[in-house]
Amino acid sequence: MSKTAKIHRVGIIMNGVTGRMGTNQHLLRSISAIMKQGGLRVGKNDIIMPDPILVGRNAGKLKKLTEISEAKKYTTDLKAVLKDPAYSIYFDAQGTLQRFAAVKQAAAAGKHVYCEKPTAITTAKALELYHFCKKAKVKNGVVQDKLWLPGLVKLRKLIDSGYFGKILSVRGEFGYWVFEGHTVAAQRPSWNYRKVDGGGIIIDMLCHWRYVLDHLFGAVQSVSCLGATHVHERVDEAGKPYKCTADDAAYATFELKGGVIAHINSSWCVRVRRDDLVVFQVDGTQGSAICGLRKCWVQNYENTPRPTWNPDVDQPINFYEGWNEVPNDGQYENAFRIQWEMFLRHVVLDEPFPWTLLEGAKGVQLAELGLKSWKKRAWVDVKKLK
After folding, report:
1. Quick one: 300 exposed, middle or buried, by C-beta within 10 A (0-12, 13-18, 19+)?
2. Can you list the alpha helix ranges (DSSP code H) found in 12-114?
3. DSSP code of 28?
4. What percent of the chain stands above pLDDT 70?
5. What is the pTM of this model?
6. Which phi-psi region, left, alpha or beta, contains residue 263 (left: φ > 0; alpha: ψ -120 to 50)?
């Protein structure tokens, strides 16, 4: 670090980081990692240095986080720390039901807001948060991490290069088997499967699919969604069986601007036999691509096989051949960290940050319309939010 470097210290209130994603992605792999490397260098002589304080209800858990990260301060008193002028950013990774009230409190206190998705459980509430922050004149953003996954970054470059010709369709498969807890411990929290606690895969994953589809393939114009609760009983953290009331699978089709058709299956009741936990296949007139979290494969028009349907003999074509892997283009940083760095630059340097709470509201809107489609068993149009 240069002796003449100007240090921009940015106080960050990190609320709800005792959860799995909050701890691993936002604290350890993002804010703590930035601090460990000496801050975020934003110019020859400028460095942004995060100064976090961890907030939650369990002081013991918070203290343990300070022992394994660069964050050394914690408190269970959110109201008090919101009054502290040393902290200009409020980050929220709490459960969905707790987010709305806390974000409004933070914005009212003049804090810039950055939070996990979904930003609320209804479109009306999500839009209210956006307009509240806008009126309070605080900068705001929502986590949209999948846009910076290496696999999707490679896919984005293929789209921008015109590789596909005219894109025809997108197929997505997401999910894995979440154990019920009777004989094998569950690997997701029990509230995910209780509707009253804000659980459900539709409210969780359609928020993701909205920004992925909008930013890569075309704005979502309508949706047809069928949800299901396949597993009816699970075991909670206390070892007690409970009734599952939230959807654990969703089968959704989307019409996109430009005529692209997308279909994405999302399930916590599926066993994986594919390249990754999430896989997208994009088919176009000139070529196709398949990407996972980190890797991407392509097959152009010239390499497309010409199979013959004959169920009486073993398939002579190995369909995995004829696909070429897209090489890595340098190092790929953690997706959450990339967006954190962008938000820090937005706050300190006023650089553009298009992923506002309005984008978060769009995700909630699609999830809400997915639930409506399921209930009505019909296509539902997606209206423009503002």
Report:
1. middle
2. 20-21, 32-36, 59-68, 78-82, 96-108
3. I
4. 99
5. 0.93
6. beta
